[in-house]
Design brief:
Elements: E1 2-6, H1 10-20, E2 27-32, H2 35-45, E3 49-53, H3 61-66, E4 73-78, H4 85-90, E5 94-97, H5 102-110, H6 117-130, E6 136-141, E7 144-149, E8 153-159, E9 162-167, E10 170-174, H7 178-184, E11 190-194, E12 197-200, E13 204-209, E14 215-219, E15 224-227, H8 229-239
Parallel strand pairs: 1-2, 1-3, 3-4, 4-5
Antiparallel strand pairs: 6-7, 8-9, 8-12, 9-10, 11-12, 13-14, 14-15
Length: 241
Amino acid sequence: MKAIIIDDEPLARMMVKEYLQSYPHIAVAEECNDGFEGMKAIQQHQPDLIFLDIQMPKINGFEMLELIDHPPLVIFTTAFEEYAIKAFDAHAADYLLKPFSKERFDKAMQKLTQQRVNATQAVVDMALQTAAPSNRIVVKDNGKIKIIPMAQVQYLEAADDYVKIITAEGSFLKKKTMQYFEDSLPPQEFIRIHRSYLINASLITRIDLNEKDSHLLLLTTGARLPVSKAGYVRLKEALGI
């Protein structure tokens, strides 16, 4: 098996490498200091397993995994206990809380035989929804990683298997569902006005009555978006009208 260690702490990487000496069938293909390096290494080596820190510079471990189409098996390593440990356990991906012992490391390695690659994405989704709401969205744009602060998002639009993120710079695609964003974004700040649209509430300038009792929402950017009946109810509740 090929493995990659992704952690911004050299001592933590050294500990994992030391513990892996007991597993000669696993070769460390590369060590990475952050999520950017980790993504490049995963694309280059196509590892079977990664040891991944969560809190790192630039982009965190969850955000890095979101950008990978087919994530390998993951053993998370972190010093922060507030992340959703139960979510990891429920999906058979392991979670090592630093500093961890060789005995605890060995238990994680034993679970590898029970893990499946398709469990990784479920773990990431569960952890992201359980953790504190993010104030940014990380996307791939022409092969580069772009970090979009939520304050810059004008609205989100459904686009088949993707969600289109509309900003003043342009639009960006994220392979998620509208339901995912509706569940993870603060409902007072982003309102689902239609099955295909989630809008930044701070940009609302007017709600116009349209034909057949339907409505159109006008944003300060000039965008005019349809409002469904259920969306109109949510709008009134959120705006207190």
